Amino acid sequence: MVQLTGALSFQNGDVNPIDLVRDIARVAGGPAYAYYAPFTVRDAATARALREQPEVAQAFRQLPLITKAVAGVGFWGPGDSTLYDAADERDRQALRRLGVCADISGVFLTADGEPVKTDLAERMIGIDAEQMRAIPEVIVIAFGTAKATAVHAGIRSGLISGVVTHTALARALLNVT
Fold this sequence. Notes:
Elements: H1 17-28, H2 44-51, H3 54-61, E1 68-75, H4 82-86, H5 89-97, E2 100-104, E3 107-110, E4 115-116, H6 119-122, H7 129-133, E5 137-141, H8 148-157, E6 162-164, H9 167-174
Parallel strand pairs: 1-5, 5-6
Antiparallel strand pairs: 1-2, 2-3, 3-4
């Protein structure tokens, strides 16, 4: 099990990626490549330094070996993306201007499914679009009909190969043009 992104801090005590990676690795009987690092930091230099930390670097060295990944999908709006909710208003506006409508593990996408390079992405600890594209099977988990456009962008991007969702979102996806 390999942690693909740093962690966001939540006041409500939700499970973080570190706990999830370790718990699944324990059940599966394999190694866990987890690290303590935030998902976003103030500047690109700090992000580069964190990526060089031994635990982070060790996890990122595993990326070419990953055959399956599970990720969430965020619709770039309040309450529908943990990254949006964690970002400051300047970053939110900048990504809107670039046409971002979705995020998948920190990979930002336009409605057409095109990955977007952003200043925020340079300040993140996580995989990029090319690294995600190299994973043979990426399954996303999405909930809420508001995320139909975001899931559709993920499908159009070619980055994801499967979606786990509920009936209402599946029906909404059929109506996205």
